[in-house]
Amino acid sequence: MEGTVVNAVSGEPVKKAHLSLRPAGAPNGVPYGTDTDGAGHFLFDGVDPGRYTLSISRTGFVNQQYSPQGNSRQSSPIELAAGQKLKQLTVKLTPQGVLSGRVLDEEGEPLANANVQCMVFGYQRGKKQLMGRNGTSTDDRGEFRLHGLSPGKYILSVAYRPPGVTERAASRLPGPEAAEPGYATTFYPNATSPDNASSLEITPGAQVNGITFTLARVRTVIVAGHINGKPSNRNTNLMLLPRNNVGFGMDGMMRAGGRVDARGMFQIRGVTPGSYLLRADYNDESGRYSARMPIEVGNSNIDGIELTMQPPGEVHGRVIVEENGDLAGAALNVNLQPKSTGPGMGGAGAQAKDDLTFQVRNVTPDPYDVRVGGLPDGFYLKSIRMGQQDVTESGVDFTQGVSAEDMTIVVNPNGGQIDGSVQNSNGETAAGAMVTLIPEESHRSTLWLYKTANSDQNGHFTIKGVRPGKYTVYAWEDIESGAYQDPDYVKPHESAGEKVSIDAGAHQNVQLKSIPAEKNDKTSR
Question: What is the SS3 string spanning 235-287?
Fold first, then answer.
């Protein structure tokens, strides 16, 4: 396979770009690698037949996977047959976007070590919300620079905690009148909420400079209390997280931490009014102890909180394989994924043993979705039971304690398969289209039933291991990650989908027309 890497904007060849060709569906497989020469030319020789993903990276450009259109958020796999010589492949690499500026205090003085976050509105669990993309801290001149940005609209925010506002344990708390000055998190240009922020649009290669934040002082309060349930609390991780999910996943953004002394006393300073979740986690050789408590912070200090640590739970279970399915060489893993997202909500998982039993340790008292990974091609998840309760689609709720009953997971080797091809509105082969398999309406809250594939250079795609049921198949020329799990996003395009009914072991072929990008843009707006 050979071709040329070019700048997606200017069309000029890109030298010193690194290309990595990795077997599709094998994230741990050993890739082929090469670099472009002075004319942007590259060559992969002696490649085994198969399906591959091609990744490209170069300083000053967005890291991306191959797409005929140069789309930085969608990719097209490449199918190579035995003896095939794929030539004149043009790889379009998108120049990076840059946002830079400075952060000042209310008197116009630069603020060093302010936390600057670059965020986008994206989809998570079928809902559109603000998510972190990049972050940095200001230097001694109060300046920041965010690079490597893909085209899109971004929300910028700044959070700053003065050096004097540190977390320290204390047994006594000043009265309500002792609120301290601090700085509110500010969204560009000067909003205190992302709802009132202005977005900054980055086009390919754009550099937006001269952004200035001037932070305003606000009165902050102290949240203090005591942690019970563990003799030594000095290594406890304590966090105060906003309950509106804004800022989750962004290191140091819109959250406050506190230290805990040997008596279990804690104090968190510099807290602005709002709704929070107070979380504490402690790890030792026996596992992870945890506690959480919702709190409302107003204009007065809060004292006397009693937070009780809960010991780690364990989930035991087994996997049952129907119809003599062969799992030889498969590394099955069972994962508990929290229904809520955010720091400290990492979930728990375990790999099934040779006898197909498993033991998930360090399970915290939270609600979870159950995911099974590592199934061979063609297998599907048939059912999950917790004791006698069917939790296949509902997941498990351990908020009142981890169940002592065993989990039974049933898998079946006769999953359905959907093959097909995609054409654009002009009847031409549509390479790099995102194909989504969406379950019927009554099952759309079960996110693991959704499946995706990308059409290859010939417009072909395959989706394997489909659980029997009714679905609709769509092809998208361009779509935001996860948007297909939002029913409101998909609804205007229902007529463009192909309905299929999949039986166990059935193979179906569908021909799809890709939904043009401009129609998606109207939906997202």
Answer: CCEEEEEECCCCCCCCCCCCCEEEEECCCCEEEEEEECCEEEEEEEEEEECCE
Residue from 130, 123, 126, 128 nearest 487 by CA: 126
Residues of the chain with pLDDT under 70: 27-28, 164-180, 230-234, 244-258, 341-346, 518-525
Sign of CA dihedral 384, 389, 390, 392: negative
- State CA 42 to chain mean position distance: 32
Domain 416-524 belongs in CATH node 2.60.40.1120: yes
- Per-residue pLDDT of 410-421, as tens digits, reads 999 999 999 999
Edge to edge, the sheet with strand 451-454 lists: 451-454, 434-439, 469-476, 498-502
CB 141 within 8 A of CB 502: no
**What 3-state class would DSSP assign to 453?**
strand
Q: Which two tokens stand for residue 245?
A: 């999910």
**Architecture field, domain 98-308:** Sandwich (2.60)
State both tokens at 4.
């040329």
> Which residue in the block uniquely carries the two structure tokens 């401009």?
518
Sequence-distant (6+) residues with CB within 8 A of 395 are 339, 367, 368, 369, 370
CA-to-CA distance for 13 and 18, rounded, in angstroms?
A: 13
Which tens digit of pLDDT belongs to each residue from 168-209? Answer: 444 445 554 455 678 888 999 989 888 889 999 999 999 999
Contact 124, 133 (CB under 8 A): no
- CB atoms < 10 A from the CB of 399, how many? 10
- To the question of pTM greater than 0.90 for the whole model, the response is no
Q: Cis peptide before 151, with omega less than 30 degrees from 0?
A: no
Instruction: Tokens for 409, please give them.
Output: 């997971």
Tokens of 222: 């102290």
Place of tokens 């915290």: 364
d(CA 72, CA 449): 26
CB 127 within 8 A of CB 486: yes
Strands 357-363 and 313-321 come out as: antiparallel
Query: What is d(CA 181, CA 165) in angstroms, rounded to the nearest whole number?
Result: 9
Total residue length of the chain: 525
Tokens standing for residue 25: 């569906």
Token couple for 397: 């709720």
> Are 266 and 306 contacting, i.e. CB atoms less than 8 angstroms apart?
no
Interatomic CA distance for residues 123 and 518, integer angstroms: 19
* Structure tokens that stand for 441 in this block: 């309406």
* 2-93: CATH number: 2.60.40.1120
Q: At residue 141, what are phi and psi to the nearest 5 degrees?
A: -95, 5
